[in-house]
Write a structure and sequence with these properties.
By secondary structure, the protein is of the alpha/beta class. The chain is built from 14 helices and 12 strands. It binds S-adenosylmethionine (SAM) and iron/sulfur cluster. One of its GO terms (molecular function) is tRNA (adenine(37)-C2)-methyltransferase activity.
């Protein structure tokens, strides 16, 4: 592959505090930082020349130092009433997906206006979970904080909506890109920035225990979702290699720390895969640990990934599993909405595009098929 073209760092990854010393260098007053943020986040200006309250030399200095948009909208799948999956081309030619999940029926029967955006945190993923499209072509690179923030800015404009909820459930493992993800969260939460409440942001992780503890110490009250998918080490080892590094005992210990620090419930994500993790025994183990850690459980029928032979269990098995977990006095939901399925399968659209562009080889590694076949 050709080397990455250099572009100036994104202004969307910059805080007003970081701007102040640069402004001093340019003989500008500190209050300009606030003005610049207003152009960026309130008026959503896409060029520096439009920042008409700033002097021409300051516009030029900013343009030399920063980029305002670093990725190009490539295409969208889905329509206004359904989940929309946006594909963006990054400055180095790679692709990422961002999924907008529309307003759903409110809990009390009325229509809720909430819109959830599922953002990517990396190009590809190194964690190699055996059921997931995101890791199929391996890991390419971390997204910068600017690229994470820009997904929200661009989708709001393209869809003409305001995002209320944000989930880090797109491509990549957010806790393996800790610094950029927490910086993006800070900017997305800031009043001068995207002003999204921290409690409306959920970081989903495959279980990187040390980073979970670190995030527990992070001052913003973000939520955490754990991709559990196995309630015992042998089952989890089979489908999630990360479990060999951080086995369940270590993961649960980190979650106890989370509970102590954050005092808010955890969510366990549990994909139901036929004959892999859908047994009564797994449901009992999951119920026990969810009750102990005060976690709610989201059960997700496996969403087929092209090239991978895993399948979801029958509805009867899914419901029995949910009822068994719920019998531990645990809140357990079975996700059936299409939107979530599409979000969960994040990574497939990008795989198709990068394969078509000849950036990656599409072959599903033989090893995946063997593991799926249970050999
Ligand atoms: C793509 S991951 C990204 C966040 C993080 N790396 C993680 O594993 O939690 C987001 C969620 O999608 C789930 N997922 C991946 N492939 C899926 C599939 N084929 N069907 C349903 N959910 C899937 C993951 O297990 C995880 O719970
Ligand atoms: S489920 Fe998450 S950690 Fe596992 S391969 Fe997919 S993106 Fe990576």
């Amino acid at each position: 592959m050709s080397s990455t073209p250099a572009i100036p760092p994104s202004l969307l990854a910059t805080t007003p505090e970081e701007l102040v010393p640069m402004l001093a260098e340019w003989n500008e007053k500190p209050f300009r930082a606030k003005q610049i943020m207003e152009w960026v986040y309130r008026k959503r200006t896409e060029t520096f020349e439009e920042m008409s309250s700033l002097s021409k030399p300051l516009q030029a200095a900013l343009a030399e130092r920063f980029s305002l948009r670093t990725m190009k909208y490539a295409r969208v799948e889905g329509s206004e009433d359904t989940t929309r999956k946006y594909l963006f081309k990054l400055h180095d030619g790679r692709f990422i997906e961002t999924v907008l999940i529309p307003a759903s029926m409110g809990l009390l029967g009325g229509r809720s206006d909430r819109r959830t955006l599922c953002v990517s945190s990396q190009v590809g993923c190194a964690y190699d979970c055996k059921f997931c499209a995101s890791g199929l072509a391996g890991f390419t690179r971390n997204l910068t904080a600017g690229e994470i923030v820009e997904q929200v800015v661009q989708v709001e404009k393209l869809a003409g909506v305001r995002v209320d909820n944000l989930v880090f459930m797109g491509m990549g493992e957010p806790m393996a890109n800790y610094t950029n993800v927490t910086k993006a969260i800070t900017i997305l939460n800031a009043q001068w920035g995207m002003n999204i409440g921290a409690r409306h942001m959920t970081v989903s992780t495959s279980g990187l225990a040390p980073q979970i503890k670190k995030l527990a110490d992070f001052p913003l009250q973000v939520r955490i979702a754990i991709s559990l998918h196995g309630a015992s080490d042998p089952v989890r080892d089979r489908i999630m290699p990360v479990n060999r590094k951080y086995p369940l005992a270590e993961l649960f210990e980190a979650l106890e720390y989370w509970n102590e620090k954050k005092k808010q419930y955890i969510t366990f994500e549990f994909i139901l895969i036929k004959d892999v993790n859908d047994s009564r025994e797994q449901a009992n183990l999951l119920g026990e640990v969810a009750a102990r850690l005060n976690a709610k459980v989201n059960l997700i029928p496996y969403n087929t990934v092209e090239g991978l032979p895993w399948v979801r269990p029958s509805e009867k098995v899914q419901k029995l599993f949910r009822d068994t977990v719920a019998s531990y006095d645990v809140m357990a939901t079975l996700r059936t909405e299409k939107g979530h399925d599409i979000a969960a399968a994040c990574g497939q659209l990008r795989l198709k595009q990068e394969t078509a562009d000849g950036i990656i080889d599409s072959a599903i590694p033989e090893q995946r098929k063997t593991i799926a076949a249970g050999v």
